[in-house]
């Protein structure tokens, strides 16, 4: 009798799978539920029912019950279920988030060549989440996954190989990912073709892939493509096309692109000269941490090149400070100059001025070297801090 019941529900399970594959999820859900309630040894049915509950396919979402079903199936060697248990632990769905448990279940499924489990296991080793960081082992698992066609693994596997200095392997993975449409892989392989790194140098292919990445709204690729058009590097020189790509990248809030767009407006490259817009974009880029933009902003607020720009020495000094603290030697020199001569500050501070001159000099700024020598000769006996008149 028991064997008859099992055989009966095998048929129901088969029909449920057929309905699932036809995306008739409401019908498949009812049949999987029936099988699970009546044939407790059908662990595949547990997985399918859990999957429908997890994603809300043909039924209300219930991630807690889905996790329980996945665990039942995974504990009985259903590889897809082991992967889903790993995902539940990774994301904290249906169970408390636990990266260590996630790694354990991804490891279990990866043993049976489950591509997505191999990817997430490799990613865990790459990031050191739930397990000790191990880039060679990360690369090993990511390559397995990449060979199965997982695009994210092609990308991250390439990054791991790059970290290990294995540029031929990185180029191979980036090229595979690029052909599969991944914009980061397209950007990376474009760089590899440009430099001849791990692959034969080819400007034409470099431009081809950077164009593909730019068209997918990769702001770094858009900036690189803009630079090519601005310089005529591998493409015809076209300042207007360059400006359009700078603008697209800047609108994606890429700080370096904001700075480049500001320079276009400042110089009138590919657009009408507009220093007010230049200042606006430099402000945005500087606020996003772009050091060159901080310097441009400080320079233009110190000595405005347009009558519509108001000189603001206090704000200029602020940006010299920010750029100096970010490690720019020229900004260190200019900050020292502000502190020595009372530009944008309420007090002259010779001690701090000397400190910044010396730092700038140590970082290769020649003007600061001269200022440091001058200070060394003349600072003795001077009042080190005094109010600006």
UniProtKB/TrEMBL annotation:
Coiled-coil ranges from the UniProt annotation: none
Family matches, as InterPro entries: Sel1-like, Sel1_AlgK, TPR-like_helical_dom_sf
SMART domains assigned to the protein according to its UniProt record, in alphabetical order: SEL1
Protein name: TPR repeat protein
Native species: Anaeroplasma bactoclasticum
């Amino acid at each position: 009798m028991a064997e008859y019941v099992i055989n009966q529900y095998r048929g129901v399970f088969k029909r449920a799978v057929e309905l699932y594959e036809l995306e008739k999820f409401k019908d498949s859900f009812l049949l999987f539920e029936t099988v699970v309630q009546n044939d407790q040894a059908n662990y595949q049915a547990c997985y399918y029912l859990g999957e429908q509950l997890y994603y809300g396919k043909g039924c209300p979402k219930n991630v807690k019950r889905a996790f329980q079903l996945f665990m039942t199936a995974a504990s009985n060697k259903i590889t897809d279920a082991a992967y889903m248990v790993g995902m539940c632990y990774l994301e904290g769905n249906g169970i408390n988030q636990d990266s260590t448990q996630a790694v354990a279940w991804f490891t279990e499924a990866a043993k049976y060549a489950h591509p997505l489990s191999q990817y997430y296991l490799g990613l865990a080793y790459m990031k050191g989440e739930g397990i000790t960081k191990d880039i060679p082992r990360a690369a090993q698992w990511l390559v397995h996954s990449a060979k199965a066609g997982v695009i994210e693994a092609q990308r991250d596997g390439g990054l791991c190989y790059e970290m290990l200095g294995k540029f031929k392997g990185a180029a191979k993975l980036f090229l595979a990912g690029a052909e599969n449409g991944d914009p980061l892989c397209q950007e990376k392989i474009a760089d590899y073709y440009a430099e001849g790194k791990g692959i034969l140098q080819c400007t034409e292919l470099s431009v081809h892939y950077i164009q593909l990445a730019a068209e997918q709204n990769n702001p770094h690729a858009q900036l690189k493509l803009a630079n090519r058009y601005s310089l005529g590097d591998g493409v015809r020189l076209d300042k207007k096309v360059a400006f359009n790509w700078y603008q697209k990248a800047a609108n994606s809030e890429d700080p370096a692109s904001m700075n480049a767009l500001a320079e276009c407006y400042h110089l009138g490259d590919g657009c009408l000269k507009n220093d007010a817009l230049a200042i606006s974009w430099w402000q945005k880029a500087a606020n996003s941490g772009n050091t060159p933009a901080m310097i441009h902003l400080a320079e233009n607020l110190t000595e405005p090149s347009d009558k519509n720009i108001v000189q603001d020495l206090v704000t200029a000094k602020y940006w010299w400070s920010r750029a100096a603290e970010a490690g720019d030697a020229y900004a260190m020199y200019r900050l020292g100059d502000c502190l020595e001569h009372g530009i944008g500050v309420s007090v002259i501070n010779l001690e701090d001025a000397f400190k910044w001159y010396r730092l700038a000099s140590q970082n290769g700024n020649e003007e600061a070297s001269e200022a440091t020598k001058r200070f060394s000769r003349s600072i003795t006996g001077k009042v080190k801090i005094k109010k600006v008149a």
